[in-house]
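Give me the fold.
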Amino acid sequence: MTSEFQPPYVPLSDVHSALKSTGFALLSAQAVGEWLAARPLDLAELHTGWNQLPPDAYLKDGGRYRSRRHSCFVVEDDRVRQVPHRAHWQPLEYNALHGGMQRWFEPMEPATVALPVWSRLLARLGEAASALRGAQPWSVEAHVFRIDTTDGIGRPTPEGAHRDGVDLVAVFMVDRHAIKGGESRVFEANGPSGQRFTLREPWSLLLLDDARVIHESTPIQPLQGEALGWRDTLVVTYRSGSFQGDASA
């Protein structure tokens, strides 16, 4: 049995400096709650948005293990505006498996987007992006994921270790149910150093400077026998200028 590496959480007061100095920062669930001014009830209500996720119809490995929704926003200072629904697109340079194709996922449910905690979450992440790159409008893509063990194994990152082609990546661990695996790994994009750890706390958060690090998560398996397990995450990306796939991008 391999030992599990614990997340090297940083205090909320150090999140911006840690992101600048190492290219990533980890916040505990308690720190995230303080950051978002969110009660456990607020976050539990937000998590209900994971209950009706359509299957991902674009998996090139033929898997049935991923369900998701996707919506886009523009965040400037504390102003959050949802933009018309659009395809998710990445170049092959950043996603060798699913890049170069327009992927039309179902949008987030209106009731989820309307929650006050959702706007606060996007605004706080915008502050982190602006602390890293300077204050500006941010093109934001939000991905609501469930990876399950329908196929016996679920792959959170079937494309492998990668960058997303954005400025800031935020990965919230929302829920784990009856699984093992799902270790997070962060590596220098241009160096030998790396970190590995397993996020278990609901609503703990990994922030990544996408220009400096690459990241992946290891596959998940059922904790016992063939019982269905799953891993719920929220991935939110912030990009300066336009969205990927725009003619001006």
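The mean pLDDT is 94.
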